[in-house]
């Protein structure tokens, strides 16, 4: 077992498909969305943010601010997939090139870096999410089973100055190691 994909336990009975390549020499394994979801247009989201700020201004309570942050956050599409690989390998998540052209969907982090130690981490079992922003003017519906991004396994190199004392055990993703 060198590298590959598994379905995370939360989705085990939901008939998900593990990522697959669609042509003989494709570098990327296509990932499908694990859920139906709508990605609202960023224009609409920003408009809502402005309305919200005008309404609540500085007087908003911390609870209200938390609520607003929740509904206005960038969208993470769950894939229900985790990836195992060798310790000196990484899985790069890249957008499909058709997404910006046809649907106005971009990956705001440019590429996603899925670390080998993300697999089976204690926080979220290593579920891979695709961060997506809809820069178009209409909301976009994503259906369960629709291909949304692709993952490419790569080897990575260490620097001469690599400092073990800075390295902790991973317990999640998306800022789990702090700011
Ligand atoms: O598009 C992405 C990018 C990252 N991740 C997961 C896997 C990765 O191993 C982990 C951490 O990613 P990264 O190091 O890029 O983010 P961070 O903001 O530095 O978070 P952390 O503090 O958890 O390292 O989040 C995803 O599921 N999808
Ligand atoms: Mg990190």
Automatic annotation (TrEMBL):
<dbReference type="InterPro" id="IPR008181">
    <property type="entry name" value="dUTPase"/>
</dbReference>
<dbReference type="GO" id="GO:0004170">
    <property type="term" value="F:dUTP diphosphatase activity"/>
</dbReference>
<dbReference type="InterPro" id="IPR029054">
    <property type="entry name" value="dUTPase-like"/>
</dbReference>
<dbReference type="InterPro" id="IPR036157">
    <property type="entry name" value="dUTPase-like_sf"/>
</dbReference>
<feature type="domain" description="dUTPase-like">
    <location>
        <begin position="74"/>
        <end position="178"/>
    </location>
</feature>
<dbReference type="Pfam" id="PF00692">
    <property type="entry name" value="dUTPase"/>
</dbReference>
<protein>
    <recommendedName>
        <fullName>dUTP diphosphatase</fullName>
        <ecNumber>3.6.1.23</ecNumber>
    </recommendedName>
</protein>
<dbReference type="InterPro" id="IPR033704">
    <property type="entry name" value="dUTPase_trimeric"/>
</dbReference>
<dbReference type="GO" id="GO:0046081">
    <property type="term" value="P:dUTP catabolic process"/>
</dbReference>
<keyword id="KW-0378">Hydrolase</keyword>
<dbReference type="GO" id="GO:0000287">
    <property type="term" value="F:magnesium ion binding"/>
</dbReference>
<comment type="similarity">
    <text>Belongs to the dUTPase family.</text>
</comment>
<dbReference type="GO" id="GO:0006226">
    <property type="term" value="P:dUMP biosynthetic process"/>
</dbReference>
<keyword id="KW-0546">Nucleotide metabolism</keyword>
